[in-house]
Amino acid sequence: MRMPMPMVLRQQAQASADAVLQNSMPLLVISAIAAILMFCVGVYGIYAYVEVVWASLHYGDLPCDEPLSSYWLLTLAVASVATALKAFNVLRLCLDPQTADGVISSFINFLSTLVQVTCLQWLFASKTCSETNPVLFYAVTRLVYWQLFYLFVMAFLLGIIALALRRLVMAGVLGGSEGAGCAEKVKDMKHVPLTDNELMDPDDNKPRECVICMSDLSTKVGKEVVKTNCEHYYHESCLTSWCAKHTSCPICRESLEETGGGSSV
Length: 265
Ligand SMILES: [Zn+2]
Ligand SMILES: [Zn+2]
Prior knowledge:
It comes from Polarella glacialis. The protein has 265 residues and is mainly α. It is built from 7 helices and 7 strands, in the order ααααααβββββββα.
């Protein structure tokens, strides 16, 4: 059962999310730039491919000492084979799905790398094509270099974006099961009997309050009270609900995931 969260706690949770967001700002800005770059790199790739198709169709009959005008067909063939293999992955019949997909992906990567390396070799071996058929030669050169660039840059940019997404999940901005460990720890915390004097506030000798549900700890009969390592008290069910979205103590922000068995007696 989920407890309604009092306003003050909601504000605290928001403040801590804001703090994490603020710390992650440089990374978020970098990853936004990375995403824009990825988009531009992708758009340029489409442009480069269209340019090669156009050059092959329009200038394909001009002499070229290497079969550059067939490169777009080879690329298209590899893409078609890749799509077909993914759609009709017969390996799934005899292997477990993950291994089958892995084998297919590796094969497709091998095939496309082979085609790219072959074309790169054509470009290096070509002696006259840059003069006899410059439009085709430079269009294919741009496409092949883009493909190689793409492999390395994408891996790098995706890494940055993955890091930023992780930060957002930690800040509670995006979903995630960050609180799973926290909820697990609540069970191991020290349980305090409802009649224990510990539950009385020494300042005014009134029962302490569970700040999550805003009711007295000792008056809710039948509800278990737990004590965190940071010496704060909550109803067990309240803290478990809190852990669904947070990993730190609602009062002092100390990590609840590291709370062992409620060390103090
Ligand atoms: Zn409570
Ligand atoms: Zn605390």
